[in-house]
Amino acid sequence: MKPSPTTSLLHSLKTNSGAYDSGEVQEPSQFLTDFVTREFNAFLWISLIAITALLLRKVLSLFILWARARSIPGPPCPSFYGHSKLITRQNLTEVLSVSHKKYGSVVKLWLGPTQLLVSIKDPTLIKEMLLKAEDKLPLTGRAFRLAFGPSSLFVSSFDQVQRRRESLARELNGRLIERVTVIPTKVVDCIMERIYTFMAKGSIDCKIVSQQMAFTLLGATLFGDTFLAWSKASIYEELLMMIAKDACFWASYGVTPFWKRGFWRYQQLCTKLKFLTQDIVQQCRKNCRLFCHMDENLHNGITNMGRESECGAPSCCGVAMRDNFSLHELNDDLNAREEPCGNIMGVMFHGCLTTAGLICNLLERLVTHPEIQDKIYSEIIMARNGSMKQDQQCVDKLLLLLATVYESARLLPAGPLLQRCSLKHDFTLKTGATIPAGAVLVVPVQLVHMDDASWGQDANEFNPYRFLSKTGNGSDLVLNASSTGNAEKVVNPGESSFILNDPNDNAAFLPFGSGTRACVGQKFVIQGVATLFASLLERYEIRLHSGSQSDSKPTMKNSVPQLFPSPEIVFIRRNS
Ligand code: HEM
Question: Transmembrane residues, as ranges (predicted)?
Answer without folding.
Answer: 42-66
